[in-house]
Amino acid sequence: MRYATPASAKEAAGLLSKEKGAAFLLAGGTDLLVKLKMGMVEPDLVVDIKRIPKINEIQTSAKGFTIGAAVSGAVIGEHKGLNAAWPGVVEAANLIGSDQIQGRATLAGNLCNASPAADSVPAMIVAGAKAVIVGPNKKRTVPVEKVVEGPGKTCLTKGEVIEAIVLPKPEPRTGDAYMRFIPRTEMDIAVVGVAISLKLERGVVKKAKVALGAVAPTAVVVPAAARALVGSKLDDASLEKLAAACSAACNPIDDKRGTVEYRTRVAGVLAKRAAKLAFQRAGGAL
Amino acid sequence: MSNATLVSTTVNGDPVQFACPTDESLMTALRNRVGLTGVKEGCGTGDCGACSVTLDGSLVCSCLVLGVEAEGRKVTTVEGLSENGELHVLQQKFIDHAALQCGICTPGFLVAAKALLDRNPNPNETEIRYALAGNLCRCTGYDKIVHAVQDAAKDMRKNNNRSKKRS
Ligand SMILES: Cc1cc2nc3c(=O)[nH]c(=O)nc-3n(C[C@H](O)[C@H](O)[C@H](O)COP(=O)(O)OP(=O)(O)OC[C@H]3O[C@@H](n4cnc5c(N)ncnc54)[C@H](O)[C@@H]3O)c2cc1C
Ligand code: FES
Ligand code: FES
User: Fold this and answer.
1) How much is the mean pLDDT over chain A?
2) pTM exceeding the 0.90 threshold for the entire prediction
3) Average pLDDT over residues A255-264
4) Residues of CATH 3.30.390.50 domain(s) within chain A?
5) In this structure, what are the phi and psi dihedrals at residue B61, rounded to the nearest 5 degrees?
6) Topology of the domain covering A57-168
7) pLDDT digits (tens, 9 = 90+) for B92-132
8) A188 touches chain B (CB under 8 A)
9) Chain A closest CA to B162's CA: distance in Å?
């Protein structure tokens, strides 16, 4: 196994695209090195992005935030600006693993690993996050919801590298929230994850976005759930409609941590709770 | 076959060089090449925390770090906790509270607890339990460990105040 520490995302893309054997990008390594240990991958080349300048930084501008692809969950959790702007994204990122995993795990790695249960993905989707993708020849920006195509499968072509995740500056009176259900209180994989962002106008929901995790092969955006909230002050009837729309959008697996019926039901219950939290964060009165 | 790569790093404040294959974990390199066997292997996959170290100040599982990643970085292991042959308060409190039995999880708990107290000198019980959720103990049970950390935090705050008053 060869190990490379390129000095730019472009150089990383070049190394990956030229490699004839099995080549992998290394960010926090909390997925990749587990697979290496288990013999699920046998890399000929590992390209570590953590020595690329600025890739370990969060930059704030008038437009929003640029989170470098190597920024860890722990660093995201300490960032005051991000906590104020997108608390749902921060709480989702911070749910990934233990403090030890937080010391390394990245948003881009969570996205590229493409697990259906990846916690940060629904939260990034409802916040309108985009992935800045650098290839050997060109750069493109893709909405996070378009990146994952199936379990373990992304839209990245050979050599492409996510350089950063960008989050917009939230509009006034916007709130977001992410909640997951796990059988234990810590260190488990989501049975259901729900992310909701909404914007208020005079106390009424003007815009909303709802995404579910762990109930389908990829995170799913649920427009019907968002429509249930728009125009409401989160009265019981609209919350029931939200829950029904979320349950209807579920196409989950049956496993030891949750049956199909259970996941479908819990998706609705969690959606109501997440909507209330996002509403309060947007300044709404319940 | 992976070629051995020479890695220059700092471990517990001392400059250290070791040669390791590129696919070897920092955990294995620290144990087998640097001789720091306080770094324990429980699972090797990030679940148990027995291999906890800090890397440039952040708490990580050394089983999920490649040895070659340590180049030019600063690593701290449980062996770096004591000073001038004196146990760290946390270590003493683990003994006082009998917060260990077989001891295989203990180094990881100590490193993780130290990282917590560096960040938050006065954690409540819930915060301690969440901060140590990445460390598994299969024999002592967690209550004694939590009590030891609470007690150590209390002493450390006292010592801190005392040294602040003195200066
Ligand atoms: C004990 C434990 C607990 C966990 N708990 C959770 C949890 O609660 N929730 C959850 O969602 N996940 C969890 N995970 C999984 C993992 O920690 C996350 O998916 C994490 O965000 C991965 O990020 P990373 O930087 O470590 O990725 P890496 O392991 O470095 O990379 C993951 C994959 O993405 C690719 N990749 C990484 N970065 C890029 C990039 N910038 N561009 C292109 N490709 C890239 C890599 O090649 C690799 O295939 C857990 C893992 C462990 C070991
Ligand atoms: S050996 Fe590293 S977490 Fe278990
Ligand atoms: S003391 Fe034996 S595992 Fe914790």
Assistant:
1) 97
2) yes
3) 91
4) 174-281
5) -85, 120
6) 3.30.465
7) 999 999 999 999 999 999 999 999 999 999 999 999 999 99
8) no
9) 29
Evaluate: CB of A94 within 6 angstroms of ligand 1: no
Determine if ligand 1 sits within 6 Å of the CB of residue A112: yes
Cβ–Cβ below 8 Å for B65 and A33: yes
Q: Does an H or E element contain B53, and which?
A: strand B52-55
Q: At residue B1, does pLDDT exceed 60?
A: no
Kindly report the nearest CA distance between residue B45 and chain A, in angstroms.
5
A181-234 residue pLDDT tens: 998 877 788 999 999 999 999 999 999 999 999 999 999 999 999 999 999 999
Q: What is the pLDDT of residues B138-156, one digit of tens each?
A: 999 999 999 999 999 999 9
Which architecture does CATH list for A174-281?
Answer: 2-Layer Sandwich (3.30)
CA distance A21 to B147: 51
- Which residues of chain A are in CATH 3.30.465.10 domains? 57-168
Is the Cβ atom of B63 under 6 angstroms away from ligand 2? Answer: yes
Please report the atom of ligand 2 found closest to the CA of residue B63.
2
Backbone φ and ψ of B63, nearest 5°: -75, -20
- Identify the helix (H) or strand (E) that includes residue A104: none
Map out the domains of chain B with their CATH numbers. Answer: 4-80 (3.10.20.30), 89-162 (1.10.150.120)
What is the rounded CA–CA span in Å between residue B123 and residue A97? 20
Amino acid at B13: G
What DSSP state is assigned to residue B66? Answer: B
Which residue's structure tokens are 């005079």?
Answer: A202
Assembly ipTM: 0.95
Using CA atoms, how far apart are residues B66 and B39, in angstroms rounded to an integer?
14
Whole-number pLDDT of residue A286: 86
**Contact B104 CB / ligand 2 (< 6 Å):** no
Q: Say if residues A117 and A152 touch (Cβ distance below 8 Å).
A: no
Going from the C-alpha of A28 to that of each of A57, B23, B65, the distances in angstroms are 14, 15, 8
Cβ within 8 Å of B, A 98-137:
98-104
Token couple for A257: 């941590």
The CA distance from A242 to A225, in Å, is 5
- Counting ligand 3 atoms within 8 A of each CB, the residue from B41, B135, B140 with the most, and so the one to mutate, is B140
Give dist(CA A46, CA A23) in Å, integer: 6
Kindly report, residue by residue over A111-155, the tens digit of the pLDDT: 999 999 999 999 999 999 999 999 999 999 999 999 999 999 999
From the CA of B46, give the closest atom in ligand 2.
Answer: 3
Of A191, A158, A213, A172, the residue nearest A261 (C-alpha):
A191
Q: Does B68 touch chain A (CB under 8 A)?
A: yes
